[in-house]
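User: My instructor asked us to take a sequence, write out its structure as tokens, and then describe one feature of it. I'm not sure where to start. Here is the sequence I was given:
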Amino acid sequence: MKNFTYYRPTSLEAALALLDNRWGTAELLAGGTDLLDLQKEYIAHPEKVVSLNFIQEPALTQIDVPNLPAGSKGVVSIGAAVKLADIADHPELKKLFPSLTDAAGQIGGPQIRNMGTLGGNLCQRNRCWYFRDEHVQCLLKGGRKCYATDGENRYHAIFTKGHPCVIVHPSTLAPALIALGASAEIAGLQGKRTIPLAQFFQAPTKPDQREHVLAPNEVVVRVLIPVEGLRNASYEVRHKQSYDWPLVQAAVAFRLSGGKATDVRIVLGHVAPTPYVASAAQKLVEGQTITPELAARAGEAATTGASPLSQNAYKVHLVKVAVKRALLLASGATPDWVL
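Assistant: Let's start with the prediction itself. The structure tokens for your sequence are:
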């Protein structure tokens, strides 16, 4: 890899001062599970690597779950530097947000979960093999075409309308957090701002864009999740249960009142360049009692607008399965597919 200067700031302000106002010259290092791969693959060539691992600010490094009376509302804070394993194993988070802890517990293997961080999972680069190939000059590296459109695309997007680049967004935590109504607190040299995670991601089309809307000199400090008493669940379909990225993911959240689901949110992962809100499925479930029949119909509705590529039409069926099972899990139904 290219030589670089390694920095170990001890405050967030010092780290921000080391970042540049354009992408590529400076990179943040947390767990390193993505950045080091990109460097070894000659995709990232930073002049500066700025470690966040020596900053001990509580907002960045801790999980804060307020002590709330049953049925009351509040906000949970999870620092961007918190390890995935700590999220997956946190007892209070498991009670409040099983969709998030289940998703965190299925990322990679134990080694990845004990190194990878919340912020890194949200801000990682895509896993398209054309983008990751140093010899391929795709759209995201200044080329003129997306090679996956007509090439090897069995793991790429099925919701492709309006997207010249057909990557799938790689974050497994993002769909669950969006369904839960989470926001990201972001720090820059001009101060802090908060943005809903539903607005945090974008579909990049050129080298000066990332898979998120952060400026090159901004950092995610923490994620804020409202406690609203939502039933929630995440379900993934993957080739194998060991180290692997999901083929399809569905994260759902809703209120259950009088046996009816309201404020329904259904977010799909690994099927589009950004986490994909299945609005047709949400409308179908809103105000209804969740039964296996309704969940199956919601799975069908979730595929509205899908436009598979030449090798990934199988993902359409997987969306139906993932949405149905996530809804049933969140409703408290016994998962008959594991009996």
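For the description part of your assignment, you could build on this observation: The chain has twelve helices and twelve strands. Try explaining in your own words what that tells you about the chain.
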